[in-house]
Amino acid sequence: MPPASHTPHRVRRVVLAATGLATVTALAGCGGSQSAATSLNEQAPVTLTWWTGQADTAETILEDLAAEFHTLHPNVTIKVSSGAPTTDDLLQKLSAGFAGDSYPDISYAYGSWAGELEASGRTLDITDKVSDPTVKWSDFSSAARQTAKPTGGKTIGFPAVVDDIALFYNKTVFDAAGLAYPTADWTWDDFRTAAKKLTDPSTNTYGYAYSVSGGEETTWQFWPHLWQRGGDILSADSKKATFNSQAGVDALTFLRGMVIDDKSVYLDQTDTNASPLFASNRVGMITAPPWELYDLKVAGTNYGVTLMPGYNGNHETISGPDLWALFDHKDPNRAYWSYELAKWLTDPAQDLKVNVGYGNLPLRPVEMDTPEFRDQAQSQPGFDVLAKNIVNAVKVRPTVQGYAPLSEAIGTAISSVLQGQGDPRQALDAAAATADQALAG
Amino acid sequence: MAATTVFSSRSERGRGRETAARGATAQQSAERRRQIRRRSLRADFEGWGFVGPAMVIVLGLSVFPAVWAFLLSLQKWNGFSTPTNVGLANYATMITDGQLRAAVNHTVLYTALFVPTSVLLGLFLAVALNRRIVLVGIYRTAIFLPFVASAASTGILTTYLFNPQYGLVNNVLRVLGLPQQGWLENPSQAMVVITLMSLWGQAAFTTVIYLAALQDIPGELLEAARIDGANVWQSFWHVTFPQLAPVTVFVTIWQTIGAIQLFDLVYTTTRGGPLNATETIVYYMWKSAFKNLEFGYGSAVAYGLFAVTLIITIGVVLYSRRTKVEAF
User: Fold this and answer.
1) pTM recorded for the entire structure
2) CATH 1.10.3720.10, domain B89-322, yes or no
3) Scanning A158, A407, B4, B216, which has its CA 20 to 30 A from the CA of B135?
4) What is the ipTM of this complex?
5) R_g of chain B computed on alpha carbons
């Protein structure tokens, strides 16, 4: 799952034993309870707790906006904090908060948690409110809207951050090999040919890098391959895994060919090596999300960004939108103001500060026609390509409960096959069987 | 607490004798009993005052979570939905879980590689450092330094050294004209690399324990052996080594328990890969609970692991009692 900030926090709290497992649950969670109102009074004083999941600059921006919202609505006090040491840890904090009945009004949430959050029964349902045309809900990308409505029933919050992956190419490596740069209408065969030519064992240079950690990084890079070839992750009723279709087998066979036959792919075991290797001209191409731009800028890499290579003219990509999840405290005043805060925050005027100013993609296309956006595109080449590429994220990554084990199962299958063990069809069939068990609950 | 109780009960007795000397009427003895009760209440209070804070921590951070984890192990819970009781189903799943069996095998392999080596290496280093040589303080510090380094930094160092494409070790092999190795990316070598790095960090622990034990061995024993004509090897094997037996039992258990719980180094280097070759029991447990959100199953695995460490500890303690080696 994609971290939300530029610098993904890799350091995570590690809990060694089951005792620790429950300790976290028992000790985390704070925030007082207030006496709940029974009917809505917009003027009544209200205190909201907001977990941002951000650090450093991103956190400061949000704290400033919370203060601004308080100035606009003096009866609304916002207790804003990052909520957890890293964005990943928010999930445990929320789980603990639900257990201890002290959870925030608003929290940042990875899109992949949406199904679990809805199943907790603690979220608000804002479906009716966002159908108001003044909210301009339909301006959000379809992936973002579907993630906010994980099972098609309740809308549990607003999109917070959107992203997608595109093809990054290292101009230094391409120039050294005397190859033309990739274009927006490249096919995967063009891609494979180039990767092979860029690979040079004598200098340890690889054409492409792919994750074999078996985690979500391995999995989500695979979905565009599957979708472009006409495959789907789940059956229409979301009860069965269908990634082991012919499309899936072909996609994995293609990647296996690049890795095993061409030896043109650097296999990243821990999801931490590919990006620095690309930045230091050891890897020619990566398929990566927007936060890569910041690291490349810092490293001073000479690079370009274009659309994902396509299959039969289909250049679909994947998006992993994150959310501002809204939680129910059986208090109409808190519910009202939580919604208002999230709506205000994701309005283009504020989003230009929250996301575009910080270097994330804009939530709505209308923001692309602003000086802020142009500045960002100027300072981080490829930013505009990634922003426009969001429309190519046609299908949404599933947000049903059971996606986590499904991702684990296919991630393991992909990494086994790419490391020379097992045959694509058998590996995917086995993964689908495991995933079906998880989906059945 | 013990000291306070002893002290106050002693003064109680003194006071009792004084009162008896003044002549014990029924009223007086009733008064005395009340006093004693008040006194012992105070002593109790003082005692609890001393143990209280520690007890709250132990109860809150160990006992309560342990009990809760046990309850969790009887449930199916993803951290969010309402948990459902599944009885012993999680434990039943463990028996047929192929991935868990693989994790057990990896852990056993690691333990078999790590424990004997770390004990023998610690013994060797301790004997080597237990003599009057120039700069021995520096050598001792150098041996101990890696122990202070966190597993995270050891892990980062490991990836720098053993990266197959860009690591230092393969560069050295290249210069020497030897074939390149996959190290952390080769399923059959990864666990060996992790063992090597654990030893680098952990050998200091056994060394320090052995060093302390060596300095406790009475000099006259070795002297007597020398006078009886024993050579260096004989006096080590027949005098020093038996004297070290309790410490050997202790460090073996300690290192075994530590080895069974290996997690941090795996997390910071391979994340269980390549192809799950370094997935240990604790890593698998963490993955089940926190990545796959199967908290019930994760807790069940934790209890399985707890049972194993408990059995090992009890077994060794019984053995050492029977053989009169006092390790604990």
Assistant:
1) 0.77
2) yes
3) B216
4) 0.72
5) 28
